Amino acid sequence: MAQLNVKMPEEQLARLRRYADRRRTPVAWLIKDYVDYLLSGGDPVVPRSLAGGELAAIAEQGGAFDWLRDEPDLYTREDGEPV
Q1: pLDDT tens by residue, 49-73
Q2: What's the confidence (pLDDT) of residue 57?
Q3: Does 83 map to a domain?
Q4: Is the pTM of this model over 0.90?
Q5: I need a surface site. Which of 18, 26, 56, 77 has the fewest CB within 10 A?
Q6: pLDDT tens readout for residues 10-55
Q7: Distances, alpha carbon 52 to alpha carbons 10, 24, 30, 47, 67, in Å
Q8: Residue 82 lies in a domain
Q9: How many Å apart are CA 35 and CA 44, to the nearest integer?
């Protein structure tokens, strides 16, 4: 079986290892699965910037701010000065 060595910055490798740990799989298996995906015709994963609306939707649906539902409303529209 052939072997491939890839050089990458330490920070990138550390992030890849953390991801593999969360998935409970070896880094090599992640890479092998991705190569299999690409060779079977899958589209490459390309990082892209998200628009403000997309980020807001992710934050809203992600659940990180669910605790705010239980917080009391401290301010009303009548508080402060109009902009």
Answers
A1: 878 888 888 888 888 888 888 888 8
A2: 85
A3: no
A4: no
A5: 77
A6: 999 999 999 999 999 999 999 999 999 999 999 998 877 878 888 8
A7: 31, 32, 31, 16, 22
A8: no
A9: 10
> Number of structural domains, the chain?
1
Asked, for residue 60, whether it belongs to a domain, the answer is yes
Structure tokens at 11: 């920070």
Residue of higher predicted confidence among 82 and 70: 70
Structure tokens at 30: 């992640």
HSE of 30, CA atoms in CB hemisphere, 13 A: 14
Tokens of 15: 């992030």
CA dihedral sign, ordered 58, 63, 67, 73: positive
**Which residue carries 């079986």 as its tokens?**
1
CA 46 to CA 38: how far, in whole Å? 12
* Cα–Cα distance for residue pair 52/63, rounded to 1 Å: 18
Cα-based torsion angle of the residue sequence 54, 56, 24, 13 in order, rounded to the nearest 10 degrees:
70
For residue 52 the two structure tokens come to: 């403000």
